[in-house]
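Quick one: structure for this chain?
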Amino acid sequence: MPSTLDFFKGRADRTGMNCNAIASLGPKALQGLNLTAQDFASRWRAAPAGLAEASTHDLYLAPHCDDICFSLGAFVLRRRKGILLTLFSQCGYVAQPGAVAAHDDERIAAISSLRQREDLAFAEQVGLRLCFGGFDEAPLRGHAPFDIAKVEDDARQLDEAVVAAIFAAAMERPTDRRPWLFCPMAIGGHIDHLVILKIVLRHYNALRARWRIAFYEDLHYASVRRMRAEGLARFQCLAARLKLRRSLWPIGAAVDKLALVALYRSQFAESPVSIKPFTPAQSITAPAHEALWSTEPA
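Got it. Here's what it folds into:
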């Protein structure tokens, strides 16, 4: 990642701040400056050419039904090829609980089926082949979604099965360039997102032999500035050994992405009419966009 101090060094004369003054601001202020530097660089830097290469072998990892649509819907719609693997596809949440009359196990089955049908409608709309991991989401495993006290335990227990599901979803190995694997950054701190991220990082070298790997900013979580800053700081600690750069992918016509989001009607009391929850919050001016972090040079 580019150094925050390097980024601001050339601006010191104009701002009256030198590197020692910047360094004295404290860890949180430095993290904020580093994030601003990354956002600024991605605003004006050309997106990596390699990331624009779409393949039928590209693999999109979604913790839940809707995560790829909310986070990368416009990106996927442009590419129109690849595989969607939704890992925690057994679920029990709908925005309007009264919409599902069943109870207990029958309720879980009904909601899971409903959400999987929504995922299928999205996959068909954007040209993805859909696979389900079949794993229980956090509440069905006895965890509050944002209680990460047991995340290490869950990541260890699910490790082998998740890796097996990733490789099982892959089609035959392509003979030309490696396809892409897109992994959540776990912005927002949802335990299921963190479990997937930790497993991918643990097996990074093995996965990298098969795929080029990029990490996506989870939306809607990344649309909240404080949540995004905290999530990116946590991600950068977990992935500190990787030299990743942010790339910005404009959404284009907001109505097109919102139409995809609306396919997941079980997750909304009312269909969203603003693109704001589905673009990262930044301290700089930027178009509505989706964001990827990768080692690909510009």
